[in-house]
Amino acid sequence: MTEAFFLSFKLATLTALTLLVLGLPLAYLLAFKRFPFKPLLEAVLLLPLTLPPTVLGFYLLVLLSPDGALGRIGLDWAFRFEGIWLGSVIFSLPFALTAYREALAAVDVEVLEVARTLGVGRWARWRRVVLPWIWPGLLSGTLLAFAHTLGEFGVVLMVGGNLPGETRVASIYIFDLVQALDFATAERAALVFVAISFVLVLAVRTLEARWRSITGYGTR
Amino acid sequence: MEIDYRLRHPLKLEAHLRVEGLTALLGSSGSGKTSLLRALAGLLPAEGRPYAGLPPERRRVGYLPQGYALVPHMTALENVALALKGPRRRTHALAWLERVGLAEFHHHRPWELSGGQQQRVALARALARKPDLLLLDEPTSALDAATRDRTIDDIARLVREEGLPTLLVTHDPLVAARCDSLAVLEDGEVRQQGDPETVFSRPATLGIAQLVGFGNVFRATVLEREEDGVWLESEGVRLFALGGASLRPGQAVHWGIRPEEVMIVRADRPLPDRLARNRLPVVVREVAKKGLVYAVRVEGALTLEVLLPRHVQDRLRLFAGKAIEVALKPAYVHLFSSGLPSS
Which residue on chain B is closest to A118 by alpha carbon? Predict the structure, then answer.
């Protein structure tokens, strides 16, 4: 059980960090910039929300297999940790992106413009004005992605299969236990899951409340 | 400070004006007032001087947009200190908050302050950076009437103490009247600039006249010149107006008179000769109380809006249906030299 939960945490942490690095610039692009085919890009990025995980997993499996388009350029990640990591990043991207984008959209462009007229440079504007403004949103988006990855099942099973220590994460482990009719162990694992999820959702809600109290949004 | 700016986007604008002391920039909505301010702050591309081509960070220009643009997660003190550098920045920021009377609110965040207080914080923040030019966009639009007058006086006091040229954008003639100089933006250019009294009493164009509150504007034909004025024919009425030296008989012009400058003739007081020229029998159609003044509409050969101070109405006791006479003092009959509609 420990091995499966450890793997789940490793996967969720790496996925959440990847999404922070990848999602923030993307969210910035979507929130502030205008460019051709923007709705198209948005639709593609949000597509994992509506796709069944098995469909996403199926395409990834095909692409990442040794003969697949990505497999042939060295990314033969099927049934490997790297594969479920890539799948998780794509699958949780809409959640993180939506949260980041909302946080960025709340930043008043006029405030940044006035900061420029006050002689505050680009880096200082990000560090002193934007980041303190959006950090609760960033953190809550990242936690959401983390929680979502923990609970993932379909994509991971399709891309990674069920290899202990490599791709057998906690959700799949529980599925395995039930298949083997080991209900007692499955119940303990499920309880751990409920506790973790509850703490995460509570953290996200607390962060949102804190964000409102800092900026005054929603208080008048 | 001389300003000479040309904008292409978002609208075509050519602005030449002087910012001397507290200068108001008056214009109807959509005339490009805000765009000109943003261009001066370096936030919109424009050609001209001063500051041509410099990014906003390198211009010493203080810019206060309508919403004040305070950083919401910073306290009043941190907001003011945002513009400052060095180890003593917080001390300086506090001194500035003190100057705008908000030292005790230094730890409050913007949403804990009233609109007027937020504006003073924003003003302190802009002044703290010791700008060469201050730009204020509709500083009173979000404030109630009582706060408005005090705010303008506070701003005027501060920028005079600092000796800071300040350009204040407004669409409110009452705000413009409290400034040292008044420039009017119309059809993409500054059409008139002078002290407010001159612009108010002698607006250069019909559009400016309407902007500064001329309610009564009429078409007329020039009949003849006489001494220092002209005789006009307007809606069948003969009127004498001062000035108009460049007008020729037969020419079409517009003239106007401000509602507060229409005089009600009192039977017990004979009119001086010149005033007697522009007497007009009318009937009162409507009397409406507007704050401390009465707005009266009278109809005769001309329909005129008249504004009467309360004490005058208390004495005259005008009511709808009453027949009276009004007089239009030739000095107050204003001829518009340009900007006339072709119809």
Answer: B83
